């Protein structure tokens, strides 16, 4: 008798025989078990499937024609509820980059069943931690207050109720979030993935690490390596690219390329308070 539900898995590898062998290994795994929902022969096929379906885990090769597995893993970090990623590859040299992309595990071919079972156990543990965090999170969903919706946060042991209309942006910083208003920065527990569905459509994801109030969007501008840091206002940005200026605090936040169109749409709609 199984005590835990099977993990829902998407297999992504450009070699059919590799997918077949991996499927066979998964069928032999127990506690946790795994159920293959679909297979994809490329990162593009996987992204297309994931647009309409969900899963617990993506078992992912690195080197494939077109976008590679690392690029797919990076794209998955933008999803509000993202699956766990375990790389299964013949190329051990990409392990560091894989873990920078928040991979749960990195398996090198040929994969042994025992090693795959251990990776599944890590995925199940991470999913259980996520569920527990969602059940007991100190960060509450926006709720009605006397002056409108508020968000309740636990900031260094203080329980604060902040009007949602005052929030300019929420940014992920390592293992915590920074909530910014015009006058204060608050540190809070939680994740953007949990908050995003609750804050839409009032907020806009501009990057995998930031949600911005539409009313706080002031300007979208491109910056590059030739910019001179503080002289241009881009001093806090880590990489060249696009950035959005935040109202009232005159700060700039990086904008990922895939979110540029959404930011432009917000500006065109007059979402400026």
How would you characterize this protein structure?
The strands form 4 sheets. This protein has a 5-stranded parallel β-sheet. The chain has helices at residues 16-27, 43-52, 69-76, 95-100, 113-136, 192-199, 260-268; strands spanning 7-12, 34-40, 57-60, 84-89, 105-108, 143-145, 148-155, 158-163, 169-173, 176-180, 185-188, 203-207, 210-213, 217-223, 241-246, 251-255. The model is unreliable at 135-140 and 225-238 (pLDDT under 50). It is 28% helix and 31% strand. The longest helix has 24 residues, at 113-136. By secondary structure, the protein is an alpha/beta fold. The chain is built from 7 helices and 16 strands. Strand 10 and strand 11 form a beta hairpin. The chain folds into 2 domains: 7-136, Rossmann fold, CATH 3.40.50.2300; 143-268, OB fold (Dihydrolipoamide Acetyltransferase, E2P), CATH 2.40.50.
Q: Which SSEs are present, and which pair or pack?
A:
Layout: E1 7-12, H1 16-27, E2 34-40, H2 43-52, E3 57-60, H3 69-76, E4 84-89, H4 95-100, E5 105-108, H5 113-136, E6 143-145, E7 148-155, E8 158-163, E9 169-173, E10 176-180, E11 185-188, H6 192-199, E12 203-207, E13 210-213, E14 217-223, E15 241-246, E16 251-255, H7 260-268
What does this entry show, briefly?
With 273 residues, the protein is an alpha/beta fold. It has 7 helices and 16 strands. The chain has 2 domains: 130 residues, Rossmann fold (3-Layer(aba) Sandwich), CATH 3.40.50; 126 residues, LytTr DNA-binding domain (OB fold (Dihydrolipoamide Acetyltransferase, E2P), Beta Barrel).
């Amino acid at each position: 008798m199984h005590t835990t539900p099977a993990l829902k898995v998407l297999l992504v590898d450009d070699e059919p025989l590799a997918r077949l062998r991996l499927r066979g290994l998964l069928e032999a795994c127990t506690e946790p078990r795994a159920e293959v929902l679909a297979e994809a022969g490329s990162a593009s096929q996987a992204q297309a499937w994931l647009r309409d379906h969900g899963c617990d885990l993506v078992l992912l090769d690195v080197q494939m024609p077109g976008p590679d597995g690392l690029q797919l893993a990076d794209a998955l970090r933008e999803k509000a509820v993202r699956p766990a990623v375990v790389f299964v590859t013949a190329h051990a040299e990409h392990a560091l980059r894989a873990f920078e992309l928040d991979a749960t595990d990195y398996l090198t071919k040929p994969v042994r069943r025992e090693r795959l079972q251990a990776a599944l156990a890590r995925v199940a543990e991470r999913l259980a931690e996520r569920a527990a965090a969602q059940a007991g999170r100190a960060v509450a969903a926006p709720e009605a207050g006397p002056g409108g919706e508020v968000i309740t946060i636990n900031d260094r042991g203080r329980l604060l109720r902040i009007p949602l209309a005052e929030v300019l942006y929420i940014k992920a910083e390592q293992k915590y979030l920074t909530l910014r208003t015009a006058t204060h920065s608050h540190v809070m527990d939680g994740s953007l993935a949990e908050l995003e569905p609750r804050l839409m459509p009032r907020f806009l994801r501009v990057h995998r690490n930031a949600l911005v109030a539409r009313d706080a969007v002031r300007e979208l501008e491109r910056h590059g390596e030739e910019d001179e840091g503080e002289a241009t206002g881009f001093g806090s940005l880590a990489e060249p690219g696009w950035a959005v200026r935040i109202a009232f605090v005159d700060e700039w936040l990086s904008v990922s390329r895939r979110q540029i169109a959404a930011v432009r749409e917000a500006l065109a709609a007059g979402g400026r308070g």
